[in-house]
Amino acid sequence: MSHPALAQIFVDDKPRAQWHDKALWFVRQKRDRMASGVPEWEDLRQHASEIKQHTMSLLPDYLEMFEKNATARGVKVHWAADAEEHNRIVTEILQQHQVKKLVKSKSMLTEECHLNPYLEKHGIEVVDTDLGEWIVQLRDEPPSHIVLPAIHLKKEDVGDTFHEHIGTEKGASDPKYLTEAARNTLRQRFCAADAGLTGVNFAIAETGGFVVCTNEGNADLGVSLPKLHIASMGIEKLLPRASDLAVFLRLLARSATGQPITTYSSHFHGPREGSELHVVLLDNGRSEILKSPEFRRSLSCIRCGACMNTCPVYRRSGGHSYESTVPGPIGSILTPLKDPEAHSSLPFACSLCGSCTDVCPVKIDLHHQLFAMRSFLDRKKLLGMPKKLSMKFASGLMSSKWVFSGAGKAARTALRWLPRFAVYNPLNPWGKQRDLPDAPKDSFRAQYAAYQKDQAEKKSRPSSGAGGPS
Amino acid sequence: MATVKVLEHFGIDHTFPAAQTCCGQPMANSGCMLEAKPLALRFVEIFKKYQYIVAPSGSCVAMVRNHYTSFFDKNDVEANEVRRRTYELSEFLTQVLKVDSFDGRFPHKVGMHQSCHGLRDLRLGPSSEVMTQRPETVTELLRNLDGISFSQLQRPDECCGFGGTFAVAEEAVSCMMGDDRINDHLNAGTEVLTAGDMSCLMHLEGLIKRQKHNIRVMHFAEILAESIK
Question: A388 touching B, CB under 8 A?
Fold first, then answer.
C-alpha cells in the first residue's frame, strides 16, 4: 500500500494517533532541553557533519585502514556486497561454531538484511535482546522506529503480548512488572546463548576498534558470555580517529532520546582470550549512494532517529506506514534510492517543513534531499500520471499571462456561482475537511491596475488629496 | 492590496509586472523540474529590471532563492541578481528598510504561525530545533502596535500541514496537522491568526471555517495595513 493509504488508516484511530504524536513530541522536547544545555551544540553539529563528509570522500582508504588495524587486533573482517552475502557469511560463521542459539542486540542492519528469518530457516534460534525489539519480535512485527522499535505500542499492548508469550498475568500493564518479567526471561536466553551478534554505532579506522551504544547493557551481556561475537556494520559507520568519538557520542544520545549519553558505550578492540570476534562490513547499495552527489550526504546518518521524532508526518502516520526498515525522513531517502518503484510515495509523505534538517546532528540536508528525490522519481517516470499531467497542464497555463488570468477568472466565477455540492464532492480531497477561500470578485491583477489608474488620475487633479489603497 | 498599502506607507515606488504568473514552486515541489523551468526563466526575464523584488510569501521567495540554482548556470549574472534581490516582505521591511517598529493600533491577541519556508529556508526567525538565536522578522514588525498581545503556543513552529500538493495527496495527515495547530491556538486564546505565507493561512482558514471557530485569519501585511487606518 502507498504511504497516504496507510497513513489514513493510522489517522482514523484519532486518539491513538494523537497519543503517538505526543509520545514522540515528548522525546523531541527532551532532545531540545539537552541540546540547549550544550553551548557549543551548533559547532558540534557542524564538526560532525564535516568529519562525516571527509570520511565519505575517502571511504575506501579508511575502510582498508580499519580492516588492517582490526585484523592486527585479531578481529576477522568479512566483506559483504549485499544482504544475501551478509546473511550467508553470518550463517557460515555460526555453523562453523555449531551455534544453535543466538542473542542479538539491536541492529537495524540485520533488520535491513532480514537476517532473523534467514537464520531460522537454517535452524538457528534468534532472540532480539533489546526490550523494544524483543517485543516486536514476539509480535512478529517489524520495528516502527529505529531507536524506539515498539513506540507504536501502549503498555497494555505489551501486557497482552507478554501474557501470550511469557505467561505474565492477563491484563497486567504495570511497566515495572512487565520489564521485570522480560528481564527474567531474557536472562535465561543470555545464559543459554552460543553466540552474540551486535550492530556497530561507530568503527574507528585508526584503531580497528568499534563502539556499540545501548541503554540496557544487552550488547555487553550478549557478547560477554558466549565465545563468539559477530558485529555487523554498514560501511558508512566509520570514523577516522578515536578522538572523533568525542564529537559523536555527545551528539548521538542527546539527539536520539534526550539523554546526555547512552547508559552503555561499549568499546571493542579485538576478541577476548579464547574467543572469536568477527566484523561483517556490508555495502548493500551504499557505494551506489556514495557515487551520487545529490544524495551522498544521506550516508552521514548515525541512526539517532531525531528526524523521526520531529517529523510531523511520521508522528501522525506511524513507522509502519513507511513499509521500510528505516522510516521517517531519512528512510524516505534511503529506501526509494534502493527500490524506487516500490517506495515512490515516500518522498511525498513530507510537507517540506525542514524540521528534520534542523534537528539532524550531522546536518544532513534532509528536506532538500526529499525535494531532489521527487525529481529523481520523475526522471525514472515514477510520479504517476495524475501528478505529472496536472503539473504539465499547470505549467502550460502559467506560461501565458492571458491564459493564466483567464483561467483565474473562470475559477473565481465558478466558485461564486456553483452550488456547494458541485465544489465539495469526493473528487475534491481539499474539501473533505476544509472550505475553499471565498473567491474575490476581481483578481489582485485587476485590483492593482484599477488602483494605479485611480492614483494617476488623482495626481493629475492635485486638489482632491492623496488616498491610500484600501 | 495590504502589501501595497504597507509599501506605500514607507514611500516605496512599486509596480506589479502584469506579465507575471507563478515562480514554479508547485511543479518543483512535485518533482517536475522540466515543467518548473520555463516558469523560472520567465520569472527572471520579467523581474530582472527591478531593484528589489518583494513577495508577501516566504515559500515563493525560498523557491527563487534556494531552488533557482537548478535552472541556471551558476555564473548566470541575471539569475543570480534576481535571486539576491528577491525578498520576503517582512525581511525586506526589517533588513532592507531597517524598520524596527511600526506605529499603529491593533488591539487583539495575535497567534503567530511560523511558516516553515520562511522560518527554516529563509531564516526569518529562530527555529526551535536550532540553538542559534535569530530575530523574528514578523514579530519585530508587529510587537509595537498599540494594544497587541501574542499567544503563547505549546509548539511555536510546527508545520500546519499545507505543503502544496501534500495537502491533497496526504489529506488525512495534512488535516490532522492543521487541526493540531488550530487547537494549540484555541487553547492559547488566539483571536487573530497570522503568518507570512498565504498558503498556510488558506489551509488553516479552510479548517477554521469548516469547524466554525471564532478565529480571524489575516496575513501580517493585512494586520499592518489595518493598524495604520
Answer: yes
